[in-house]
Design brief:
binds ligand PMT; about 425 residues; elongated; alpha/beta; Rossmann fold; about 40% helix; five-stranded parallel sheet
Length: about 425
């Protein structure tokens, strides 16, 4: 399987002679299974035509920040949200300086500023420009902001000189980009995720359920797999494709979800409960379709097992991240669930018409004993990556603490 399979790569092209290599780069990214969109600066269009990059990417090329048609279709915010990673290749000395300043006066700079996903630059410039202290300072600044700097290479340059500043070859850039996705904060960890709704049958044609689409849980499973974890996803009925590198188990009822989770929990380091499990099920399920009658009807319900609470009650529970779906008093209710279910962390979201359930965007407030972090409204795919990064930090903090406690216990034994 290709590491870039299904990934959305936004390629920024700034105005240097190495822009001719961007055509090959687009081709190679697509060979790796990536979907590629291209944003060009005005200067880049002097070196290579948008038509070439459009033909190779199979998508319109974007250039104008203030084009009203472009803004209506895919403006800088939409492009930034679409991307799983942004690579600027070539990145000229001028473009890097503008990145440092946080400029947003052309489309590519504005997209970079709006981007919440990994940003990489492939510098390309004359060797003297590369060695200038101004460029070195800019580079240090970008690195400190966790911008990935890919290259440059050393060798003969278009200006006739020889030295550092050549853009890396497209094949090398693609390999380094793949590595960015493989670097895993959860490398080697076994993660079990629940997602989607459950369905509790009333009779052969009717059931009780809720509005969960599974989008949040599937995004979390995908982000955990991207972070290097071995992921099993126990999912209620949803209309979503299983993410790459994720082992899927399909269930329908809460009891089936409980059985699937308990069957895998012994092999789990981290349990993430994003499913909206029905709290109750009909006490009796009719074998035949219940006939309509004029009389009122009462449905007797009985409680379903609380899967998350059952996991944390185990003698050696994994690290647990629960979700809290609330319609108000978010922090109070979430912190109550954190304590009542003995969780390590809880991610709370407001739900209701147009938020939390079903839609593509969400916002989360994450709480743990002694701390909290807020993640603003963004796509569930981005949010899941932010959440998984935080989870990895909290998991590591507990893991280190447990190790210190065990070592102390051994010392005093
Ligand atoms: O699927 P989407 O459309 O993308 O929507 C995402 C979401 C809103 C469903 C998701 O972000 C979310 O909040 N999931 C948890 C919903 C929920 O059931 O919350 P709760 O507050 O009722 O439950 C608290 C926690 O206990 C949850 O982790 C839940 O998975 C777990 N639980 C609840 C009941 C039960 N019987 N077993 C459980 O494991």
């Amino acid at each position: 399987m290709n590491t870039l399979s299904g990934k959305h790569i936004l390629l920024g092209v700034s105005g240097g002679i190495a822009a001719y290599k961007s055509a090959d780069l687009v081709r190679r990214l697509r060979e790796q299974g990536a979907e590629v969109r291209v944003v060009m600066t005005a200067a880049a269009r002097e070196f290579i035509t948008p038509l070439t990059l459009q033909a190779l990417s199979g998508q319109p090329v974007h250039s104008d920040l203030l084009d009203p048609r472009a803004e209506a279709a895919m403006g800088h915010i939409e492009l930034a949200r679409w991307a799983d990673a942004l690579l600027v290749a070539p990145a000229t000395a001028d473009f890097m300086a503008r990145l440092v300043q946080g400029r947003a006066d052309d489309l590519l700079a504005a997209v970079c500023l709006a981007c919440e996903v990994p940003l990489a630059v492939a510098p390309a410039m004359n060797r003297a420009m590369w060695q200038q202290s101004a460029t070195r300072d800019n580079l240090a600044n970008l690195r400190a902001r966790r911008v990935h700097v890919l290259g440059p290479d050393t060798g003969s340059q278009a200006c006739g000189e020889t030295g550092p500043g050549r853009m890396l070859e497209p094949g090398d850039l693609v390999r380094l980009l793949c590595g960015m996705f493989q670097e895993g904060a959860l490398a080697g960890r076994r993660v079990l995720v629940t997602a989607g709704p459950t369905r509790e049958p009333i009779d052969p044609v009717r059931y009780i359920s809720n509005r969960s689409s599974g989008k949040m849980g599937y995004a979390v499973a995908r982000a955990a797999a991207e972070a290097g974890a071995r992921v099993t996803l126990v999912s209620g009925p949803v209309a979503l494709a299983l993410p790459e590198r994720v082992n899927g188990i399909q269930v329908e009822t809460a009891e089936q979800m409980y059985a699937a989770v308990m069957g895998h929990i012994a092999d789990t380091d981290i349990f993430i409960a994003a499913a909206a499990v029905a709290d109750y099920r009909p006490r009796d399920t009719a074998g035949q379709k219940i006939k309509k009658s004029a009389a009122d009807m009462t449905l007797a319900l009985e409680p379903n097992p609380d899967i998350l609470a059952a996991v944390t009650a185990l003698p050696e529970p994994p690290f647990t991240l629960g979700f809290a779906a609330e319609t108000g008093a978010l922090e109070t209710n979430a912190r109550h669930k954190l304590r009542a279910k003995s969780l390590d962390m809880i991610a709370a979201n407001l739900v209701g018409p147009g938020q939390g359930f079903e839609v593509d965007d969400n916002a989360l407030q994450v709480f743990w004993d002694g701390g909290s972090q807020q993640f603003g409204l963004t796509r569930k795919t981005h949010l899941a990556r932010q959440l998984v990064a935080l989870l990895a930090q909290r998991y590591q903090a507990r893991y280190n603490k447990d190790t210190v406690v065990k070592l102390h216990a051994q010392d005093s034994a």
